[in-house]
Amino acid sequence: MQKIAILYDASQAVLSTFDLDEVLQRILVIARDYFHLQNVAILLLDEESNELRVRSQIGWESGLADIRVPLGQGLTGAAAQQKRPVYAPDVSKDPRYVALRKDTRSELAMPLMVRDEVLGVLDCQSDNLNHFDSETIDLLAIFSTQASLSLQNARLYSLERRRASQLEAINAIARETTAVLDIKQLLSRSCTKIQKSFQLSHVSVLLKEEQELVLRAHHGDLTPRIAEGDRMSAEAGLCGRALASGKTVIENDLKSVPDHLAFYVETASRMCIPLVSFGQTLGVLVLDSAQAGAFKGSDIQPLESVADICATAIQNAHYVERVKQLAFLDGLTGIFNRRFFELRIAEEIERARRFGAGMAVVMVDIDHFKRLNDEFGHLLGDEVLRQVSSVFHQQLRKIDVVCRYGGEEFAILLSQTHQQHALGVAEKLRKLVEGWQFPGVPRPVSISVGVASFPDHGTTRDELVKAADGALYAAKQAGRNRVRVAHNHHKAHAQTASR
Question: How far, in Å, CA of 44 to CA of 164, rounded?
């Protein structure tokens, strides 16, 4: 999560100004400080000469600032020409490397792109061999998309000062969207901000899922004909044309377009902009107006900049979701870990308390696991853990949660479950493990199980986990390979009070 914070801070910094030189310097400072680089430069593409020219740099030796690099030459020229990152972990072994500094050992050239247009290259050099691992390259790729947007915004500002109000709206949307990492909140806020800033009738975001587009958020004044979550073909209508061409599609008279998808009753004209982040098409930004002829060619550039900002923010939000998921997964078994258990048990208790649907905590321990490790080795022990996890995961409902609690112990949350059903589930799991053929283990493997339910055995996290642990201990004491239910919470309190 620290790296996510770095990307957030970097995004805020580079998007806070439109002055081109200031943007370039901020990009370089962030790249140098956050990614520990000795030398970093930005080369901008001169479209007339088809060359890259050093525009700003930190750490380069004197005399190198005026260098021009033709497209295709060196790592930077290759990155610009191929439109993808080019990395030399050892420059002495890469024939593309152009020796400008004697101390450089590894070099990463990251193209700065908006949509499919190359603006320049972020050139990162290190005095260490193989300085850039795959995670750092991924982070720099995400950062470079934000840097590219900053460069594009600065260029737009310098070329079209008359559009200052629209550019200010773009910057406001950028600041707001980069501050949001929850995907649902991000999409809702983006639609609202774009609709108000550009005075549109309605704004929608449709994200691509395999061969379909799904309406994930919308905001405006028009009457919907579809609801959030509705799906449609990714090849249909104006959205399909925009995705197929990779370009913005404008239709100012929808009545004359027989194949358009009528999302809203009053729509008369529509602009569809593909959401593209670093070459990956994420979906479509759909802008609707109740007025015919509402969109002009001059609207494309600023609104495409907004779409690019949204696409990058969506990509960042997806990245954060993946990081969160990894933080909640056990590395050995692939199921959830104790951290996720602690998060979800509070939610399940609150849901059970609010709706009276019940829930149960099931604690499981693999019997004599230490002996199994000592006898057959830790590799086989790890495989037993993985297979037991798989059995649990396959047998439980999607609404249930199975976690590796620690070592050979598992914790299961059964949602919307009463005590008898929880006992039935626990006994089913015990029998499955007892009869399971574990490859390489010549004797049966068994589990002991303790069950506690809400509210019979407790109404708080500590009460339920303690009760289930006590039941698990009782199962072990009774000879293992069995299920035990916790003592009744209310009876225990009554007995204590009567003493």
Answer: 24
